[in-house]
Write a structure and sequence with these properties.
Elements lengths: L4 H21 L15 H20 L27
């Protein structure tokens, strides 16, 4: 009786995994947005206009330098950084 358990336990585990995989394949697709509707041509054109206006406005924003919170902690370099020699 003791010699059967090392064989039975892995077989039961494999059967459970195979059953779970098979049941997942038979499930209908799940939609995260079940009430989503298609847009009319007028709505698509309006959405395209909104997107174009957003892109145009975002291009007008000037580039900003990246903020470095550790700048005050690091010592400032005193001289030029020596280049590594290639071998």
């Amino acid at each position: 009786m003791r010699k059967r358990w090392p064989r039975i336990v892995p077989l039961v585990g494999m059967l459970a995994l195979m059953t779970e995989y098979a049941s997942a394949q038979g499930m209908p697709p799940i939609s995260l947005r079940p009430n989503e509707r298609t847009l009319t041509p007028e709505e698509r054109e309006r959405q395209k206009q909104i997107d174009d206006d957003y892109k145009a406005a975002s291009k007008k924003v000037p580039d900003q330098k990246a903020y470095d919170p550790w700048a005050i902690v690091r010592p400032t370099p005193t001289g030029p950084v020596p280049k590594k020699k290639q071998q």
